[in-house]
Design a protein that fits this description.
Blueprint (H helix, E strand, L loop, with lengths): L2 H19 L2 H10 L5 H20 L2 H15 L3 H24 L1 H12 L3 H14 L3 H16 L4 H24 L4 H27 L14 H33 L3 H37 L3 H37 L3 H10 L1 H22 L3 H26 L1 H26 L3
């Protein structure tokens, strides 16, 4: 294993562990309320978690934009810019989180109107939302810090924080629910405690390993307007790109729901295979952000091209591995997720679409990492826009004739189109 592979795995492996542990926060909450004797508790946690997942996903640019720009500044050895990027991101995350808290009521009502839960679930979901919304500064602040750590080639700290958050969440939620007799309030409060524990741990680890950089930060008041403009331009593009991704995923879910409960369940289960693949590929995307941005910022053409090549080699290995796993283990995995006979039987007709996910999905993940690293965010936006248009045209033309197969074909084409457009843009504009 050569130097480039070692550099990639040093960042990718901790990031993969982080990605796998993140969903455990939601699983812990679900498991706890699942033993309260009321199905409405489970529904409330599901609805509340969905609301915050959508809201925070939209603001994921705080992590991605910070990562790419920090990696480039580190590559240039511009330590003052490295620190100023962290401060800019933290300030923006604080402003956004305070805005979320101030406008929590209309945000909550709009999201509940969109999801339309039953009356009993709605009441409990409101209770959950009203508590967890106060964790917004911790979540978004941690986005900024995690992006900065990755940009500094350190994905171990986000991994440690993620593991610690799960431990705190388990202990806090169990103590509040079973020790103090709280219900949904205890689960929600346990989540907030874990979120702030993660933020304070990130601050502590930054102080432990990076406080020597603090004398480089200067004053944000003395920064040039053009510096903030560049920061907002990158994050604006990622924000708009994320809106296209959210629109496609929401429509995919709603289109499945319109075909009945069984098809909705099948699509939801098959998407878990896509998410599992994404947990691994995101790790290599993070390596692309950190290493690609570093060598791009340092104008080291040879090292940059080597990183891109080696990332696609690792991507090819992931394609072979996951395709084999899904072909031979896809149906057994779905049976683990559900024992509902109708859903399992219906899944047989559609499971082969999941076999295509690694093949069409590898390029978009790797290019996303590379493009974030070199802050080619406008091209990420363009590729997502084109792919989304193709998806909606495909759904319009194919679902009437092919039903759910038409929906899946449109999704597969959408994923592939992102990779195709990014490949073309990279070779036209950035191949050195």
């Amino acid at each position: 294993m050569n130097q480039r592979d070692q550099q990639i795995l040093r960042i990718a492996l901790p990031a993969i562990v982080t990605n796998i542990t993140v969903p455990l926060l939601g699983l812990v909450d679900t498991a706890i309320v699942g033993h309260m004797g009321n199905a409405a508790y489970i529904g409330a946690i599901a609805v509340g978690s969905m609301i915050f997942s959508l809201v925070y996903w939209v603001f994921a640019f705080l992590r991605m934009g910070t990562s790419g720009m920090t990696a480039q500044a580190r590559g240039r050895r511009d330590l003052q810019e490295v620190m100023r990027l962290l401060l800019r991101s933290v300030v923006v995350s604080l402003v956004i989180s305070l805005t979320v808290i101030i406008f929590q009521y209309p945000l909550r009502e709009v999201m509940l109107w969109f999801i339309s839960p039953t009356a009993d679930v709605r009441l409990l979901a409101i209770t959950y939302f009203n508590i967890v919304v106060w964790g917004a500064p911790a979540v978004l602040g941690l986005y900024s810090l995690s992006g900065w750590f990755i940009g500094m080639q350190n994905s171990r700290i986000p991994m440690l924080i993620s593991i610690m958050q799960n431990v705190v969440n388990i202990l806090a939620s169990l103590s509040l629910v079973y020790g103090l007799g709280m219900k949904v309030e205890g689960v929600a409060l346990g989540t907030v405690i874990a979120q702030y524990a993660g933020l304070f741990a990130a601050i502590g680890l930054w102080w432990r390993y990076y406080r020597r950089l603090s004398h480089w930060q200067g004053s944000l008041m003395k920064e040039k307007f053009v510096d903030w403009l560049a920061f907002f331009r990158v994050n604006r593009d990622i924000f708009l790109r994320t809106l296209f991704l959210v629109a496609v995923n929401l429509y995919f879910t709603s289109a499945g729901a319109r075909q009945g409960a069984v098809i909705l369940a099948v699509n939801t289960l098959l998407m878990q295979l896509y998410l599992f693949f994404s947990y691994f590929m995101d790790g290599f995307a993070y390596a692309g952000e950190a290493l690609g941005g570093r060598y791009w910022g340092a104008h080291n053409t040879k090292a940059f091209q080597e990183i891109v090549s080696h990332l696609f080699v690792w991507g090819g290995a992931m394609v072979v591995f996951f395709t084999a796993v899904y072909v031979f283990g896809g149906m057994p995995f779905l049976r683990v997720l559900t024992d509902e006979p109708n859903v399992v039987e219906a899944s047989r007709e559609y499971v082969w679409w999941a076999y295509l996910i690694p093949i069409v999905g590898v390029a978009p993940f790797i290019w996303d990492g590379i493009f974030i690293g070199i802050t080619a965010t406008r091209d990420m936006l363009v590729s997502s826009c084109i792919a989304a248009i193709v998806f909606f045209l495909g759904v319009t033309g194919l679902m009437g004739q092919m039903g759910n197969h038409g929906l899946w074909l449109s999704m597969v084409i959408y994923i592939a189109m992102r990779g195709v457009v990014q490949t073309i843009l990279y070779h036209r504009r950035y191949s050195m």
